[in-house]
């Protein structure tokens, strides 16, 4: 038990999120460098070169230069065992990001200092804020010309709706980047550009009160710093652990991932400001990670990760207790015991088989097609379930047909498997079988992923016909009313989901109200009830 407590207290599990190109991969790589998981930064990935990140599994990601799926990496630093969950960098994958955030205890948001909060990813960042978990902000690329730090903070506060609390403060940027001031230690670390940040940088640190400091950063920048510190002390929100924990206040760090500047101090502050895995909510109350037997929930399912082994992997977040390879656990939703086989974890550049893991860790296990997103696995006798993971309402719809009609079976298998992963939702015409398939997605890029994956993994070419619908409503009381008799609008379509539940698709939001007016008994809901 003492050992279990120790192991769990060492755990930190966070998701890293950014707009593409803000520097998430570079920062992750530098974390691994400090953790000793890799010796030379640059080996994990150079996306612009021919090398690809460990976390980029799918071909399409390489082609588009975006992360479509999220992956997990583990490393050790300063006695802590850290799990980093990578997230897709495109707004169309906000649902995937949300699920990943369910498995994380905190999030690190990387922002490009020259670009600030970028329009395309506001959705992703908002999803992050919606989760009410601690969010840490790393404003990157200060070795280049960057925007005014006050303007960057204002933007985060206004656009994302979260207050900011700068933990360090940049002195200049670009050619005039002198270093950063740490508001807690009251010390300035001087910036020296080094060989592309391939090695851990040696720091040169001065006390703010050291009379030598102005000589190093110039009198002009020293005076500017004095002025800034006065403003910050007067106007910036103070660090407040409770507000950070509730996701209302984000500690902000300035640095440069590429040159490795500010990365290690970020990591140190981050580890001291975050907590080890906390109790999680279940339908039978809170589950304490240390007191309880093994429990976990599935937050992601990914098929065909490795084209050589056409397997499906279910990723789970361990919430309590200890995991032993090959152990048998209760799969609550499936109503039976299952053996968790081929458990894997990602370490820097390889997938490795794990034989032990603890509350806070993320593992992937072989999924023979039995798991669904949100499922609970546990070893206690209580048979509790963890809070479900919400599904986002699709906003884009298309009719999907396979070009070669002989490939019907593969086609159906492909779309069903991809739907089980949660990347798409499948609907059918209300009065027919599987011959017409309508696919709904949260972000339209998922149509591209679907087409690509069907071709590459299932050898099926498809044609998509875009449909004009953008709003979806499930019919809550369909057992009580005559669904075929609903008096609709011209932009409305009646379809059913895979569980044969009827629902309505609308092109225009105002039609929803009109249909409700015309059908007094009709009850609609934005969400499907499972
Ligand atoms: P991601 O898409 O968020 O994972 O971004 P990457 O880590 O792949 O970085 C995108 C580009 O920005 C790459 O060319 C990096 O070398 C570059 N980059 C990342 N961090 C910095 C930084 O601190 N300073 C500068 N100048 N470039 C950076």
UniProtKB/TrEMBL annotation:
Tell me where in or outside the cell this protein is found: Cytoplasm
* Annotated GO biological process: regulation of translational termination
Molecular-function GO terms, alphabetical = GTP binding; GTPase activity; translation release factor activity, codon nonspecific; translation release factor activity, codon specific
Q: Which domain of life is it from?
A: Bacteria
Q: What is its main location?
A: cytoplasm
Residue ranges occupied by any Tr-type G domain in the UniProt entry: 9-278
What Pfam families has UniProt attached to this entry?
A: EF-G_D2 (PF22042), GTP_EFTU (PF00009), RF3_C (PF16658)
Q: Which UniProt keywords are given for this protein, alphabetically ordered?
A: Cytoplasm, GTP-binding, Nucleotide-binding, Protein biosynthesis
User: Which positions bind GTP?
Assistant: 18-25, 86-90, 140-143
Please give the GO cellular component terms listed in this UniProt entry: cytosol
NCBIfam families for the chain: prfC, PRK00741.1, small_GTP
Function description: Increases the formation of ribosomal termination complexes and stimulates activities of RF-1 and RF-2. It binds guanine nucleotides and has strong preference for UGA stop codons. It may interact directly with the ribosome. The stimulation of RF-1 and RF-2 is significantly reduced by GTP and GDP, but not by GMP.
The record's PANTHER family line, in alphabetical order, gives: PEPTIDE CHAIN RELEASE FACTOR RF3
Family membership: Belongs to the TRAFAC class translation factor GTPase superfamily. Classic translation factor GTPase family. PrfC subfamily.
* Protein name per Swiss-Prot or TrEMBL: Peptide chain release factor 3
Species: Oribacterium sinus F0268
């Amino acid at each position: 038990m003492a050992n279990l407590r120790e192991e769990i207290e060492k755990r930190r599990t966070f998701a890293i999120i950014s707009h593409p190109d803000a520097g998430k991969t570079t920062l992750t790589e530098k974390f691994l460098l400090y953790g000793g998981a890799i010796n030379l930064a640059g080996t994990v990935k150079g996306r612009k070169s021919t090398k690809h990140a460990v976390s980029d599994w799918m071909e399409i990601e390489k082609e588009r230069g975006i992360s479509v799926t999220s992956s997990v990496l583990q490393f050790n630093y300063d006695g802590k065992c850290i799990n980093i969950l990578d997230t897709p960098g495109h707004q169309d994958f906000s649902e995937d990001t949300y699920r990943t955030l369910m498995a994380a205890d905190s999030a690190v948001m990387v922002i490009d200092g020259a670009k600030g909060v970028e329009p395309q990813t506001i959705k992703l960042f908002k999803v992050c804020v919606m989760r009410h978990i601690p969010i840490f902000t790393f404003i990157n690329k200060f070795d280049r010309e960057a925007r005014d730090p006050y303007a960057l903070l204002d933007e985060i506060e206004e656009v994302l709706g979260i207050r900011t609390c700068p933990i360090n403060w940049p002195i200049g940027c670009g050619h005039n980047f002198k270093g950063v001031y740490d508001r807690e230690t009251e010390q300035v670390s001087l910036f020296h550009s080094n060989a592309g940040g391939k090695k851990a940088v040696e720091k040169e640190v001065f006390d703010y009160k050291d009379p030598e400091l102005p000589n190093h950063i110039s009198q002009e920048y020293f005076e500017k710093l004095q002025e800034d510190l006065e403003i910050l002390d007067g106007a910036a929100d103070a660090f407040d652990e409770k507000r950070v924990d509730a996701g209302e206040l984000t500690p902000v760090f300035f640095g440069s991932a590429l040159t490795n500047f500010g990365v290690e101090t970020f990591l140190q502050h981050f580890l001291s400001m975050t907590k080890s895995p906390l109790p999680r909510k279940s339908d039978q109350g809170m589950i304490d990670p240390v007191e309880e037997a093994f429990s976990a929930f599935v937050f992601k399912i990914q098929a065909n990760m490795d084209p050589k082994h056409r397997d499906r992997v279910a990723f789970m977040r361990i919430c309590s207790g200890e995991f032993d390879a090959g152990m048998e656990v209760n799969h609550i939703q499936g109503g039976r015991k299952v053996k968790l086989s081929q458990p894997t974890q990602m370490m820097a550049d390889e997938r490795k088989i794990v034989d032990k893991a603890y509350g806070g860790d993320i593992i992937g296990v072989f999924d023979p097609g039995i798991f669904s997103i949100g499922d609970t696995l546990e070893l206690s006798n209580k048979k509790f379930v963890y809070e479900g993971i919400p599904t986002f309402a699709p906003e884009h719809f298309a009719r999907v047909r396979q070009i070669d009609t002989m490939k019907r079976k593969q086609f159906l298998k492909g779309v069903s498997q991809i739907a089980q992963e949660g990347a798409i939702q499948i609907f059918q015409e209300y009065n027919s079988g599987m011959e017409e398939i309508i696919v709904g997605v949260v972000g339209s890029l998922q149509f591209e992923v679907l087409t690509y994956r069907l071709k590459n993994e299932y050898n099926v070419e498809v044609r998509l016909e875009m449909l004009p619908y953008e709003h979806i409503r499930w019919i809550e009381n369909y057992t009580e009313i005559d669904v075929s008799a609903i008096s609709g609008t011209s932009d409305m379509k009646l379809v059913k989901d895979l569980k044969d539940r009827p629902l309505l698709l609308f092109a225009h939001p105002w039609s929803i109200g009109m249909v409700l007016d015309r059908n007094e008994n009709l009850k609609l809901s934005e969400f499907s009830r499972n």
